[in-house]
Specification:
Length: 496
Amino acid sequence: MHKLWLKSSVMALSLVAILSACDSGAPIPETGAETDPESLMARSSTVATRGPKRQSFSSTITPAGRSSSSGSATLKAFPTAEGFGRKAVGGRMGRVIQVTNLRNAGVGSLRAALSASYPRIVVFRVGGTIEIQSELEIESPYVTIAGQTAPGDGITIKASPSFTDAALEIEAHDVVIRHLRVRAGPSSERSSMRRGISIEEDARRVILDHVSVSWATDDNITIIDGARRVTVQWSIISEALSHSTHIEGEHSMGLAMSGKSFTTRERVRKISVHHSLLAHNRQRNPRVNTAGTVDFTNNVIYNWGISAARAVDDFVTVPFNLVGNYFKSGPDSRGYEITVDAETGKGAALFIRDNIGPHRPSDADPDQSVVEIEDRRWVVGDRNPASPITETDPRTAYDEVLQGAGVTVPRRDVVDERVVADVRMGTGRIIDDPMEVGGWPVLFSGVPYPDEDEDGMDDRWEEAHGLDPTKASDKNQVSPSGYTWVEEFLNELAGD
């Protein structure tokens, strides 16, 4: 199957070997330069020559954290990817699939693109809201959803009230999602499963970057069932619905990480959440019940209800880092910023540093002041093993997150603008129904950039970089940065 889309070169053969192993069920190592797909690609590729650049795009690409050499073994999902999920391969070297309409299913739909079984990069030729009639599933690995390519006001996924499951479910490895909104909304029947994005079933090497998720009746984002090596970065997780159609009644949950794999019995582990905004969620901001590290760094948490950040044990000690976060109480907030529910006596290994909140308004106060008094026995002196993240002080993070989190390309919608304004002004409440705050905004569809050969790249950008806008094979040539040319375009479009 993969021979249909890979060229016959040493680079392609190396990648086919790895992809075939994945398709057959054989394990693919999570670390190690000798077997990472991007390392094999880099070692065996021929670098294309770059031409002159257009002034309408940035004239140099020098992202931090990666080498300009094609032989670099440190290639990330994209230049600004950080945390445990930073090495997600996504659809690198795969086909480009265009989403050309906003229909629930059929040719040209997002569902059709995600259902494909081969590596793929999904680009959008239309902006607007896609109302899905059943959950979207990513079951085959190696996929990039490039929401930054959408024209107009970008893309939002809305879930029809007619079904009760998550809006978007990820059950595969090496998934990259950027600049995508998921605003689920309630189901008409009571359910405990209406989530925004659910990452599960041993999913690994997954990164969510600049996503905006709201209006689920369960968790806005759930990471469960043995998922690992996941990053959520520069995202907005807001307004989970409280008195809605959840089977348990009052709910409103932001972000949860817990559970074992049904097949391997492995627990969720190695999760990074950084530079994200969690606002107007009653609980789970986040809730952590894992056997491996959750690293929670430089986030902004606003107007939690009965609990903000919470560790819950389940016969294991929960390793939980909280560094440089900014907790700001709102009209619905009560309780401490960080709590532990030691149900089985194992508790947590809480590493606490440089957090600001109602119980620690000054840097002069002890770090553990943000932890509920009886839970301070779980605070440890050494940071739990974590993947590197570019850290700032919490006040700087507050400004940067409010300025840049969520879908910003092509632009923020009025929902995120309102939520960010609430944080700044200390206003807003936990809601029961999206219509309380205006519901789903009408999105301008816009005009897509010209792309004659349908390779995912703007023809003008190709010409500026010495590529042929009539030759689709350009997309998978490797640029001097080590990324393929279509990746280079997508990275630049996203602001990397």
